[in-house]
Amino acid sequence: MQKASSTSHAGRLILVLALVLAVLVAVTRPGPGLAAGNGGPTALAPTVLLARVDVTGAIGDIPLPIHSELVDGKGLSYALVIATPGQLQGSGIAYTALDEAPPHTRYLLGAERRPGARQTARDTVPVLYDDGRRIIVRDAPGRTAALVRMGLSPRLLRQIPIDYAISKARRETARTAFSTHPQVQAMLDKVTQKAFSDAISGLSGETAITVEGEPYTLTTRHTSSGIPITKATLYIYERLQALGLTVSFQEWTSGEYSGRNVIGELPGQSSSSGVVLMVAHLDSINDTTDNPADPAPGADDDASGCAALLVAAGIMKDNRFENDIRFVFTTGEENGILGSAAYAKKLKDDEEELVGVLNLDMISYSTQQNPVQNLHTRAATNPTGYQEDMVIANVFVNVINGYGLSDSLIPVILSENNDEGDHYSFWENQFPAIMAIEDDNNFNPNYHCNLNLDRLQYLNLGYGTAHVKASLGAVAHLAIPLSGPPAITGPSLLLLGTGEE
Question: On the CB side of 362, how many CA atoms lie within 13 Å of its CA?
C-alpha cells in the first residue's frame, strides 16, 4: 500500500511539472503573426493588400508602392500597389482591394490573347480580378502553363516596387532632328528577303541548323524543353561569335523555370557611349500540350524577331557607331517575360545608360493590303517614360518615311502600357523601350502553335523584310553611325547570305 501511494504522489508531481512546462512553452513560442527575435515576440504583422489605384495624373506622384502600371479594357490607366490599409487610406486616393497579400505571395497577370480566355480562366482558377483585358491570379506550380493553354499571355507581377525617383540622363543625341544617312541606306540595301527567310527557316525547324559542327533540327524552343532550347541558345551564341561580336550567356532562375539569355555586343566608339538594345525572345510555346518537348516551331512567334536580329547583326558589324549595340535573345518570355526581367534588373543594378530598347515580337504575319505595324509605348500618365519611348517610336516612324518603306509598313503608335512582351521588363526598370509588332487587329491565328501551324509558309515575308529594314534603321540612328573602318576587323561574315531571292 505504501509503495502504491508513493507512486501515485510521484505521478501527480510529474503531471504538474508537465503542465507548467507546457505553459512556459506556449508563452515563449511565437504564435500566428508573431516573430521571435532577440527581444522576444513582436506584434502581429500588419495586413498587406494588393489593390488597384486609378491613375488620373502623373503616376510618379502617387505616394504608394507601385508594382505595375496598366491600362484596363475601358482604356483607363491604373496601378497595382501592395500596401497596408493605413498606407492606402493615408494616401487619400480611392482604391479597390483585390487580395490580402501575405509575404512572398506571387501574382500572375494574364492578358487575353484568344477570345473567351478570361472567361475560361474565371471558370477554372480562382481569379482575383478581371480588368476587361487581363486577369490577376495567385501564382502556383503549373499555373503559368495553364494560363497559356487557356489563351492568355501571363507574366509575374513585379515583387519590388518600381522606383520612379531614378532617372538616368538620356543621350541628347538621340533627340536631334532626323535626317537620312547614306551609311544607313547602304545597310538597308543589304537586307534581303532570302536572308530573313533562311534565318526563320533554321530557327523554326524547316531546315537544319549547325551546332558544334553537327546538323540539328529544332522542333521546339520551349524554355523547359531541355536539349532543344540548349541547342537553340548555343546556335545563336556561335552565330554571333562567328560575326566577331563579344558574346555571353546570362543564366536566370525564377520559380519553377530557368534558362539563359544570349547577348552579342557590337562596341561603340565613344568613351562615354550609351547602349542601344535590339531584343527578341528565342523561346517558343505550344498551348495545345502540356509537354514542353512537343512541336512548337514558332516561326512568327518569335523566330521572326530573332531572325531580324541575326540579319541586322550580320550587316551592322561592318559599320562603326558611337553607342554600343547589343543583340539580346531572351528565353522565358512565354513563361512570364522571365529572361528579360533578369537582364533588365542586371542593367539597372550595373547602372547602365540605355539610349533605347527595341523589342521585336512577331513581325511577319499580315494579310492586309496596307500592312499596319504597331509601336507600343508607355501611357502619357508616365510623362517621363512616355516622352522617352516616343523618341524611339518617332525615330522608327522617320526611318519608314525617310527610307521609302511607307508602301510596305504603316506604323501606328499605341501608348497604352502594353505588358505582353519583353519591353515591359525594361519599362519596370525605368528604361526607354518600345515594342514593334504586327497589327493586333490582324492577329496571327496560328499564334502559340495552335495545330502546329506557326510555320514559315504562313508568313508574309515581304512585310517581315520591310520590318527588318525599319528596325535596323531605327537602331542604327539611335546608335549614331560613324564613318571610317568597321568596329570589328577581319573578313565580312554576313549571316546566312544576303543574295537576292
Answer: 29
Task: Please work out, in degrees rounded to the nearest 5, the angle formed at the alpha carbon of residue 266 by the alpha carbons of 253 and 386.
Answer: 70
Strand partners, 109: 136, 155
pLDDT in tens, 334-350: 999 999 999 999 999 99
pTM: 0.87
Of 342, 355, 358, which Cα lies nearest the Cα of 428?
A: 342
Angstrom distance (rounded) from CA 148 to CA 152: 5
Judge contact between 283 and 370, C-beta under 8 A.
no
DSSP 47: P
- What is the rounded CA–CA span in Å between residue 126 and residue 491? 58
Q: Which residues lie across from 278 on neighbouring strands?
A: 327, 358
Cβ–Cβ under 8 Å, residues 221 and 203? yes
pLDDT band at 449 (very low <50, low <70, confident <90, very high): confident
Q: Are 466 and 306 in contact (CB under 8 A)?
A: no
Side chain identity at 93, as an amino acid letter?
Answer: I
Dihedral pair phi/psi, residue 314, rounded to 5°: -65, -25
- Nearest C-alpha neighbor of 68 from the set 156, 144, 138, 128: 156
Which residues lie across from 259 on neighbouring strands? 252
Residue 341: strand, helix, or coil: helix
Q: What is the distance between the alpha carbons of residues 22 and 301, in angstroms, rounded to a whole number?
A: 62
Query: Does the pLDDT at position 367 exceed 90?
Result: yes
Nearest-angstrom CA–CA distance, 160 and 457: 43
Give how far the C-alpha of residue 407 lies from the chain's centroid of Cα atoms, to the nearest Å: 30
Q: What is the pLDDT of residues 82-112, one digit of tens each?
A: 999 999 999 999 999 999 998 889 999 999 9
The angle that helices 143-150 and 117-124 make with each other, rounded to 10 degrees, is 140
> Which residues are bridge partners to 249 per DSSP?
262
Do the beta carbons of residue 218 and residue 205 sit within 8 Å? yes
- List the alpha helices (DSSP H) in 317-382: 338-349
Burial of 10 (0-12, 13-18, 19+ CB in 10 A): exposed
Q: How far apart are CA 319 and CA 313, in angstroms?
A: 10
All residues at 6 or more sequence positions from 34 whose CB lies less than 8 Å from its CB, including other chains: 41, 42, 43, 44
- Can you give the pLDDT at residue 39? 38
Q: What is the CA radius of gyration of the chain?
A: 27
Cα 405 from chain centroid (whole Å): 28
Single out the residue of 312, 266, 318, 310 nearest to residue 491, CA to CA: 318
**Residue 423 grid coordinates:** 519591353
Nearest-CA neighbor of 273 among 395, 384, 173? 173
Parallel, antiparallel, or unpaired: how do β-strands 107-112 and 77-83 relate? unpaired
How confident is the model at residue 271, as a pLDDT? 77
Distance CA 386, CA 77 (A): 13
* Of 368, 389, 367, nearest in space to 378 by CA: 389
Confidence of residue 290 (pLDDT cuts 50, 70, 90): confident
